[in-house]
Amino acid sequence: MGGFPHLARRFFGSLRPGGPSETDRVWVESTLSEAEFGLWGRMDGPDRRHSVRVALEVERRLEHQATLPILAAALLHDVGKIDAGLGTWGRVVATMSAKVAGADTARLWITSKGFTRKVGLYLLHPEIGADMLELVGSDPLTVAWTQDHHKPAAEWTIDADVAAILHDVDDD
Predict the structure, then answer these.
(1) How far is residue 4's CA from residue 133's CA, in Å, rounded to a whole number?
(2) pLDDT: is 103 or 29 the higher one?
């Protein structure tokens, strides 16, 4: 789930309320399908800002190779977090819990209730997000990257060069 500098930037960025600018919102709406945009709109403000930053940087780096499925992957890789409903501090606890108990424990936690279930859902957000995107008909590349974005590079199922850019930009 990214190194400490990445997590620290995400934490401090999440303290600022609100989503991306109207200009960015309009760009996202023109980039995603209607169903994908509906999911993106359910993400919290800091996650939407993060996703726009990632997508714009991916577009800059890939230029004409930045297809709509790749941009959708950049914009929606964290969409599975919406089901967890955790705020900033809950996410800190979830991340620390995974470090202590191991991320595999999340499968047990989602069978419980309350905060523990939310932590489990948060930790499983790649799988949950991939399922959400598959259900709305997203491109297989978008679904695959959402599923793979926290896996080691050896387990990525999309083009390695594209995956490396998506990963590097997300981890910056």
Answers:
(1) 28
(2) 29
